[in-house]
Design a protein that fits this description.
- The protein has about 150 residues and is of the alpha+beta class.
- The chain is built from 5 helices and 9 strands.
- Strands 1, 2, 3, 4, 5, 6, 7, 8 and 9 form a 9-stranded antiparallel beta sheet that branches.
- The longest helix is centred in the first third of the chain and has 11 residues.
- It is globular and about 45 Å long.
- The two termini are about 30 Å apart.
Length: about 150
């Protein structure tokens, strides 16, 4: 079977991010997956990996394109909300802009790292304390992911 040239290029776009979806000690990581889609004036690339440890779950995702731009909205707004049930906080980590959420009741949350105007790294989790989840997210090389995301 002969694949169209555009499809071969699209496959390469997400494949360059798969090595950054590392193993997490003590967690069972599924095989990293990805998707690239090229449309007339835009492209979308995602690379994901799911992790499990007993009932706990975590998901690492790298997103480039319009979906990433939407995920950046809370960071750009500077949103900060804290209640007894949890929080949504904008800040910085490792010199990069981040948005983190945490819901106390089910120990779930998310960390979004702004890699560029159209690229993010996202780490979502459930059944894990916030400190442990942030330590897990720290195992991913955000700066290297950012460098690869900026290469066309």
């Amino acid at each position: 079977m002969i694949w169209p040239v555009g499809l071969a290029q699209a496959q390469q776009a997400f494949q360059r991010f798969l090595p950054f979806l590392v193993d997490l000690n003590g967690w069972e990581g599924r095989k990293p997956e990805g998707m690239s889609m090229q449309m007339a004036e835009t492209s979308v690339t995602t690379a994901t990996r799911d992790y499990e440890r007993g009932e706990a779950q975590a998901h690492a995702t790298i997103i480039l394109g319009p979906a990433a731009e939407g995920a950046l909205a809370p960071i750009q707004s500077g949103m900060n909300v804290q209640t007894a049930d949890g929080h949504m906080i904008t800040g910085s980590a490792r010199g990069m802009q981040v948005f983190k959420t945490f819901h106390v009741k089910d120990k779930s949350g998310m960390l979004i790292v702004a890699l560029s105007k159209e690229a993010v790294f996202s780490f979502t989790y459930q059944g894990v304390g916030e400190d442990e989840a942030l330590a897990l997210a720290d195992r991913f090389d955000w700066k290297e992911i950012q460098a690869v995301a900026q290469k066309k």
